[in-house]
Amino acid sequence: MKKLIGYSSIVALLGLAAGCVGPLGTVTGVGGSIYTDMSGPVLATSRDAASKMGEATATGILGFATGDCSIKTAAASAGITKIQHVDYHIQSVLGVYNKTTVTVYGE
Questions:
Q1: Residue 100 neighbours by CB distance under 10 Å
Q2: Which residues, including other chains, have CB under 8 Å from residue 107's CB and lie 6 or more apart?
Q3: Which of 6, 51, 65, 81, CA to CA, is 20 to 30 A from 96?
Q4: What residue ranges do the domains of the chain occupy?
Q5: C-beta of residue 33 within 8 angstroms of C-beta of residue 95
Protein backbone atom coordinates (compact mmCIF):
# COMPACT_ATOMS: atom_id res chain seq x y z
CA MET A 1 0.00 0.00 0.00
CA LYS A 2 2.87 2.37 0.80
CA LYS A 3 4.42 1.71 -2.63
CA LEU A 4 1.12 2.47 -4.36
CA ILE A 5 0.79 5.77 -2.52
CA GLY A 6 4.43 6.63 -3.23
CA TYR A 7 4.18 5.88 -6.96
CA SER A 8 0.86 7.69 -7.24
CA SER A 9 2.35 10.75 -5.55
CA ILE A 10 5.32 10.80 -7.94
CA VAL A 11 3.08 10.47 -11.01
CA ALA A 12 0.79 13.23 -9.73
CA LEU A 13 3.72 15.59 -9.09
CA LEU A 14 5.21 14.92 -12.52
CA GLY A 15 1.86 15.57 -14.18
CA LEU A 16 1.42 18.77 -12.20
CA ALA A 17 4.90 20.04 -13.04
CA ALA A 18 4.65 19.20 -16.73
CA GLY A 19 1.07 20.19 -17.50
CA CYS A 20 0.28 23.40 -15.67
CA VAL A 21 1.63 26.03 -18.01
CA GLY A 22 1.77 24.84 -21.59
CA PRO A 23 3.58 27.16 -23.97
CA LEU A 24 1.69 26.24 -27.13
CA GLY A 25 -1.83 27.28 -26.17
CA THR A 26 -4.11 27.02 -29.19
CA VAL A 27 -1.17 27.16 -31.60
CA THR A 28 -0.11 23.71 -32.70
CA GLY A 29 3.40 22.76 -33.62
CA VAL A 30 6.49 21.00 -32.43
CA GLY A 31 7.56 21.77 -28.89
CA GLY A 32 10.77 20.60 -27.30
CA SER A 33 10.64 19.10 -23.82
CA ILE A 34 13.89 20.80 -22.78
CA TYR A 35 13.90 24.05 -24.78
CA THR A 36 11.47 25.57 -27.27
CA ASP A 37 12.00 28.78 -29.25
CA MET A 38 9.69 28.99 -32.24
CA SER A 39 7.72 31.52 -34.25
CA GLY A 40 5.02 31.29 -36.87
CA PRO A 41 1.90 32.79 -38.39
CA VAL A 42 -1.53 32.80 -36.84
CA LEU A 43 -3.60 34.87 -39.25
CA ALA A 44 -3.26 36.69 -42.58
CA THR A 45 -5.73 38.93 -44.39
CA SER A 46 -5.81 40.47 -47.86
CA ARG A 47 -4.79 43.91 -46.56
CA ASP A 48 -1.46 45.04 -47.95
CA ALA A 49 -0.43 47.89 -45.64
CA ALA A 50 0.97 47.53 -42.14
CA SER A 51 2.07 50.82 -40.62
CA LYS A 52 1.66 49.75 -36.97
CA MET A 53 2.80 46.82 -34.85
CA GLY A 54 1.38 45.79 -31.46
CA GLU A 55 2.45 43.05 -29.03
CA ALA A 56 0.85 41.20 -26.15
CA THR A 57 2.61 38.71 -23.87
CA ALA A 58 1.69 36.00 -21.36
CA THR A 59 4.30 34.42 -19.07
CA GLY A 60 4.27 31.32 -16.90
CA ILE A 61 6.75 30.37 -14.19
CA LEU A 62 6.54 27.18 -12.10
CA GLY A 63 2.92 26.52 -12.98
CA PHE A 64 1.69 30.09 -12.42
CA ALA A 65 0.68 32.00 -15.55
CA THR A 66 -0.17 35.65 -16.03
CA GLY A 67 -0.75 38.00 -18.93
CA ASP A 68 -2.99 38.38 -21.94
CA CYS A 69 -1.51 37.42 -25.30
CA SER A 70 -4.74 37.78 -27.26
CA ILE A 71 -4.94 39.34 -30.71
CA LYS A 72 -7.37 41.93 -29.34
CA THR A 73 -4.91 43.09 -26.67
CA ALA A 74 -1.99 43.20 -29.10
CA ALA A 75 -4.00 45.26 -31.62
CA ALA A 76 -5.22 47.63 -28.90
CA SER A 77 -1.66 48.23 -27.64
CA ALA A 78 -0.80 49.93 -30.96
CA GLY A 79 -4.24 51.32 -31.82
CA ILE A 80 -4.68 48.90 -34.73
CA THR A 81 -8.21 48.71 -36.12
CA LYS A 82 -7.49 46.95 -39.44
CA ILE A 83 -5.34 43.83 -39.04
CA GLN A 84 -3.00 42.72 -41.84
CA HIS A 85 -1.41 39.69 -40.20
CA VAL A 86 -0.65 38.09 -36.83
CA ASP A 87 2.46 36.19 -35.74
CA TYR A 88 3.38 34.36 -32.54
CA HIS A 89 6.64 33.60 -30.73
CA ILE A 90 6.94 30.93 -28.05
CA GLN A 91 9.79 30.29 -25.61
CA SER A 92 9.89 27.50 -23.05
CA VAL A 93 12.65 26.18 -20.82
CA LEU A 94 12.01 22.77 -19.23
CA GLY A 95 8.34 23.64 -18.95
CA VAL A 96 9.29 25.76 -15.93
CA TYR A 97 9.48 29.08 -17.76
CA ASN A 98 7.09 29.76 -20.66
CA LYS A 99 6.50 32.93 -22.64
CA THR A 100 4.08 33.48 -25.53
CA THR A 101 4.09 36.74 -27.50
CA VAL A 102 1.52 37.63 -30.15
CA THR A 103 2.42 40.37 -32.63
CA VAL A 104 -0.26 42.09 -34.71
CA TYR A 105 0.52 44.15 -37.81
CA GLY A 106 -1.95 46.55 -39.41
CA GLU A 107 -3.32 50.06 -39.62
A1: 23
A2: 47, 49, 50, 51, 52, 80, 81, 82, 84
A3: 6
A4: 2-106
A5: yes
Alpha carbon distance 71, 56 (integer Å): 8
* CA distance linking residue 35 with residue 42, whole number of Å: 21
Task: Let me know how long the chain is.
Answer: 107
pTM of the model: 0.71
If you write DSSP's letter for every residue of the chain in order, what string do you get? -HHHHHHHHHHHHHHHHHHSS-S-TT--S---SSEEEEEEEEEE-S-----EEEEEEEEEETTEEEE---HHHHHHHHT-SSEEEEEEEEEEETTTEEEEEEEEEE-
**For residue range 35-87, what is the model confidence (pLDDT) as tens digits?**
888 888 888 888 887 899 999 999 999 888 999 999 999 999 999 999 999 99
